[in-house]
Amino acid sequence: MRNFTFHNPTKIIFGIDSTNEVGKEAKTLGRKILLVLGQGSIKKIGLYDKIVKLLKDEGIEIFELEGVKPNPRVDLVRKGIEMVRENNIEGILAVGGGSVIDTAKAIAAGLSYEGDVWDLFKYRKPIKPTIPIGVVLTLAATGSEMNGNAVISNMETQEKLAISSPYIYPKFSILDPKNTASVPLNHTLYGIVDILSHVFEQYFDREEDAILQDRFAEAIIKTIIETTPKLTENPEDLKARAVILWCGTNALNGIIGVGKEQDWASHAIEHAISALYDIPHGLGLAIVFPHWMKYVLDAIPHKFANFGRNIWGLKGEDDFEIGLKAIDKLIDFYEGIGVPTKLSKVGINDEKLEEMAEKATLFGPIGNVKRLNKEDVYKILQMCL
Amino acid sequence: MRNFTFHNPTKIIFGIDSTNEVGKEAKTLGRKILLVLGQGSIKKIGLYDKIVKLLKDEGIEIFELEGVKPNPRVDLVRKGIEMVRENNIEGILAVGGGSVIDTAKAIAAGLSYEGDVWDLFKYRKPIKPTIPIGVVLTLAATGSEMNGNAVISNMETQEKLAISSPYIYPKFSILDPKNTASVPLNHTLYGIVDILSHVFEQYFDREEDAILQDRFAEAIIKTIIETTPKLTENPEDLKARAVILWCGTNALNGIIGVGKEQDWASHAIEHAISALYDIPHGLGLAIVFPHWMKYVLDAIPHKFANFGRNIWGLKGEDDFEIGLKAIDKLIDFYEGIGVPTKLSKVGINDEKLEEMAEKATLFGPIGNVKRLNKEDVYKILQMCL
């Protein structure tokens, strides 16, 4: 196990109707708050009206930045930074999924930087202390509600890049399963793939002694595989929604990743795909991950054998063989819940594979299980076709 | 799953030689620091000298409160409170195991209360904001390094009671496996029993939908059962020490307990035993827990069956039967590593069973799986003989 520092100060308020706490909690952000919102779904379900009322009851002055899209754009981040500066806004409340939260984080990070916010992503300029962020989560997927990461897309340069900083952890996150209940089934499932993919990035690495973290990772995977069928059967099952919601947060709040080497090549590859094709992040991950797994299997067959034995109950002596079967089990699971695992099934052909491979390796080779250069990524993308 | 708030702001600095960070971290507590210490073992291993040098290098003025014993006493807490008040001390650094940390927390809690500190324990007076605490942990057991709990004994009244408050979470905890390597094997094993017992208190309850938390709990149990034999074979195996250390922290930092009903009757019973007999807490728990399990098995046989199937790999249809076998497996595990599971083996006879039962139920019935009154506790203690 590697040395690590773990410090996750986000306060989680979890449960049915925990949304009612938003006024009291938002007050700790300041009196003038920027509400960052998606494309209107929270208005349809009445959540917008409810939150605005609760904030106003606390005497909070509200400013609104609406229209965050999946694969959130830096343009809107720039607009948000301007709004905060012009109106002396004291805190940001993100109401939505990962894209909305990441937009809020990028606004906060950009605020305390004198130049253009994209410099923080592209040139990895240091992020400084900034105004606080609160979250009301509406989608189980990203984990962004309890970490210091944000991923933003720049459509002009066709880049999708990440930042990470202790200063952009949400101060609080309200996780009310009711707020996730109206997410359509396909996006619910993409969220579930996203959660599993976060686990895989940390679980499949070359670290040998982070035993508890690996068992924790398996706990999340098993819980998701056990719970997902309940949601495909009844998407309004709030108990199952609650379980998946809590899995999503724990998949990326540090507890399964501390002391591990981790990999994250598959995310870089997916970011390159969705920067060019704008497909849902979770869908892209369902396509990339199994093929990345097959490509690196021979480097850590014993890890994939753990996946086979501890998750899928596979028996046998040969680690490589068990690992290969386990990857096929994962493909079966994805296809079984209606999530495709091939680029061709989402209308992407081999036209831009080279451009994607180029983009994914923009900063040099990616991943750790195997260091992947442009040629490796190209080969994995070919396997994805 | 129940609604919950999870907010654990403790910063963990984990790994070999992380002790070197103590100066920099302690400086964030203040310039005048009370060092709370045990009975001298840290002087023998050179840790005391190392820490004092690192603190002095940062210009920190040190005051010392030495002599914390297992089952730490309120008398020393009172002495600490006096020292802090007299010298305008700004922060507390606990260097030791759970007893030392709990003493530091009780001092901090008592400081912001005008009356006698024992009122906080006995009459559950509210705990107010207070000075910050830092930790250098030397024993994997308590979990106190990453929570807001403290347990203190009053030898005068022969009571052992707990407090809990958001204001006494350590600001930071340094977890250096090297600092736990010189703990004698028997106390290492009592620590391991303590960790498992914390997991059991949260795992065996009546909550049905906290699926991830239960899988997390099983992850800790499995990791400990897998790792403990490495330590009995070679107590200086630092990799195994690191794994156990991280298990101890996660067993009681909230992640396996949030959203659960939990039980905690066995701890109340053990506290009554060690208030009268001053045996190590972990040893007491190894005796109480298996018999509590047998006493409540019929209330939640499916939970004990999970324990049997997911931990011990037991097969079969009958939950009660699997549960009973699983409890025997636990007894075998404890006896196999040389930890007794009977009161008679540690020289305790039936003389004070009634007094213990009385003490354990001081505030009324205990536990949740079954609400245990004095008579129930008496019966469990008889089973422990």
Structure report:
- Two copies of one chain form a homodimer.
- With 385 residues, chain A is α/β, with parallel strands linked by helices.
- Chain A has two domains: 11-179, 3-Layer(aba) Sandwich (Rossmann fold), CATH 3.40.50; 185-384, Up-down Bundle (Dehydroquinate synthase-like, alpha domain).
- Chain A has 15 helices and nine strands.
- Chain A has a six-stranded parallel sheet with strand order 2-9-6-5-3-4, with helices on both faces.
- In chain A, α7 (185-203) packs parallel to α9 (238-251), α7 runs parallel beside α11 (281-296) and α11 (281-296) packs across α15 (374-384).
- The first copy, chain A, is globular.
- The model of chain A has no long low-confidence stretch (mean pLDDT 97).
- The interface between A and B is large, with 39 and 39 residues.
What are the salient characteristics of this protein?
homodimer; 385 residues; alpha/beta; Rossmann fold; Dehydroquinate synthase-like, alpha domain; two-stranded antiparallel sheet; globular
Kindly report the spatial arrangement of strands forming the biggest sheet of chain A.
2-9-6-5-3-4
Give the % helix of chain A: 40-55%
Largest interface: A-B, 39 and 39 residues
Round the Cα radius of gyration of chain A to an integer and report it: 20 Å
pLDDT average of chain A, as an integer? 97
CATH topology annotation of the largest domain in chain A: Dehydroquinate synthase-like, alpha domain
**What number of structural domains do the residues of chain A give?**
2
CATH superfamily label of the largest domain in chain A: Dehydroquinate synthase-like - alpha domain
Q: What is the chains' assembly state?
A: homodimer
Element-level helix/strand string of chain A: EEHEHHEHEHHEEEEHHHHHHHHH
Largest sheet properties of chain A: 6 strands, parallel
The CATH architecture classification of the largest domain in chain A is Up-down Bundle
Distance between the termini of chain A: 37 Å
